[in-house]
Structure formats: structure tokens, C-alpha cells
Design brief:
By secondary structure, this protein is an all-beta fold. 3% of the residues lie in helices and 42% in strands. The model has no long low-confidence stretch (mean pLDDT 95).
Length: 279
């Protein structure tokens, strides 16, 4: 588990590209037959990548979280961004197709990840989890791809027509802190999350997927009046502190998992910023 300590807006103007990427971009989250994790001290969120190729992979207990088992004091949302796979939670097997989401509540002890057909057209399963501290327990719940609360956003004229699926949220799958969903851009649309926004009460992380290997997303971050950018590839994640915008445009079509944790779970609790005033 890699640890990344919290930063403030005052740090950003002095950062070069390498430091921006080191602090806010997670490039190698998926390691074959292993579990890789990043603990960001922004809202104590943990990003986890699991790529079971030749064998099932169990979620370990990381010493950095000071618990007897991973979910002793935590919860997580898990989205499969690869081929069909399974997540077994305390002996109960949940099958996740591409884009499906599983919520795992506080108290789950044994969690094992596996791929159904690693050599198939979609390849092995790739499980992306976002975990936050939890102070109560909610039941483990599976939501199939496209079966969440669907919101159609944007316009083809502004190249940001997109379908947003809310999976874990205040009116859907219950959680203590985690809010999670998947957004897919429509053909011909490349911009996500415009107008850009912040929410000073929650951090947010994006994981980009379904992006061709030779394509990239130019991801905007930083304060609205002091923006920077990250060039992001397929299956890479970005960390947005509560003070940072999070928006981007791709060179090809893509989807992304968005997940938040913090003060509240209201999806519309955001402070949008007019694009003409951004710098």
C-alpha cells in the first residue's frame, strides 16, 4: 500500500509535471495476480486495484490501516472494468460483468477476487475499489451495469453528451460515506464534467477505462483559477482533493468510474465554475 499525504492549493503552483503526476495520478494500479492499493489522506480514502489472471486473489489486511481485517472499520464500492469476474464475500459469490458495481459493507471478513474467463475477448476481470472509513454497517449489494439511477447529461453540440449511472448514493445502494457510479461518453462526445466544479466537502477520484491504449484523457485539476493538467491513460486513476476541479477531454471515447467520500452524499452538492472564468 502506497501512502499519499494530503496537499493544499498553495502547493500546486510550485509543482512540475513529475510531482503533479506523483501526487495526483495513479498509473499502475493493476498488477497481475496481486492487489495494489493507494491510501490518500484526503478523506482517508483507499484506492484498490485487483487483476486476477491465473489465480484467485484475496484482499489482504494492510498494516497501514491498523485493522485486523480490511473491512473491520471500512466499506468499499467495487466496479469491474475488465472481463466478467467474481467477488466472493464471506463465502457468497457475486458475479460482476463489465461495468457492474458491488458495495461491500463494514464487517466483511474474507473477500476474494477471481476472473471467469481470463483468456476471453474482454480478458481477465479488473476490479477497482474505492474504500472509506465506515461507522455503521450496510449490506453487501450488487448492481448490474446500467441498472443504477440513470441520468442523461450534456449536449452533443458541446461535445459532452454522456450517460451517468449512479450506483452507490443516498437514494440507491446505501453506504456510510462512499458514493460511486460510472459515466459513459456518447459517440462523438469527449468532454466529461463540464462545467467543471469543486465540492469542498468531499474528495473525488476518477478511474478512466474503455479508452484505447493509444488514446489519452487530458484531465484538468487544481483550483479553477490556477488549473493544471494530467495526461491519463486507460485504467489509470486521478485523485481530486476537495478544493480541486476534476474534468477532462479525451482523444477517443471512454468511460470513467467516479467515486467520492466526505461530508455528505448529495450528488448535486457542488460548486460549478463558469468555463470563461477558468484560468
Amino acid at each position: 500500500m502506497e501512502q499519499r499525504y494530503a496537499t493544499s492549493p498553495e502547493h500546486v503552483p510550485g509543482m512540475d509535471t513529475a510531482e503533479l503526476r506523483r501526487r495526483y495520478l495513479v498509473e499502475d494500479l493493476f498488477v497481475p495476480d496481486d492487489v495494489n492499493a493507494v491510501y490518500t489522506h484526503h478523506d482517508r480514502v483507499v484506492l484498490v486495484g485487483v487483476l486476477p489472471v491465473t489465480t484467485a486473489v484475496a484482499l489482504p489486511t494492510f498494516p497501514e490501516i491498523r485493522s485486523d481485517y480490511f473491512f473491520e472499520h471500512r466499506e468499499a464500492g467495487i466496479v469491474n472494468v475488465g472481463g466478467t469476474g467474481t467477488v466472493t464475500v464471506d463465502g457468497v459469490v457475486h458475479t460482476l460483468t463489465h461495468g457492474s458495481c458491488l458495495y461491500v459493507g463494514r464487517g466483511a471478513r474474507d473477500v476474494v477476487f477471481g476472473s471467469t474467463d481470463p483468456s476471453g475477448d474482454q480478458g481477465p476481470a479488473r476490479f477497482y475499489a474505492v474504500s472509506a472509513p465506515a461507522h455503521t454497517a450496510y449490506p453487501t449489494t450488487l448492481v448490474e451495469a446500467g441498472q443504477g439511477n440513470v441520468r442523461e447529461l450534456g449536449d452533443a453540440l458541446t461535445s459532452n453528451r454522456r450517460t451517468l449511472n449512479q450506483y452507490i448514493h443516498e437514494n440507491g445502494v446505501r453506504s456510510c460515506q462512499v458514493v460511486m457510479g460510472v459515466t459513459t461518453l456518447h459517440p462523438g462526445s469527449m468532454w466529461n464534467t463540464m462545467p467543471a466544479h469543486t465540492h469542498d466537502r468531499r474528495m473525488e477520484a476518477y478511474l478512466y477505462f474503455d479508452l484505447p491504449e493509444d488514446a489519452r484523457v487530458i484531465h484538468l485539476m487544481g483550483e479553477p483559477t490556477e488549473t493544471r493538467h494530467l495526461v491519463v491513460g486507460n485504467h489509470q486513476a486521478t485523485i481530486a482533493p476537495s478544493w480541486s476541479v476534476h474534468s477532462g477531454v479525451g482523444t477517443a471515447s471512454y468511460s470513467f468510474v467516479w467515486a467520492m467520500a466526505g461530508e455528505n452524499q448529495s450528488f448535486d452538492d457542488m460548486d460549478t465554475f463558469p468555463v470563461a472564468d477558468m484560468r
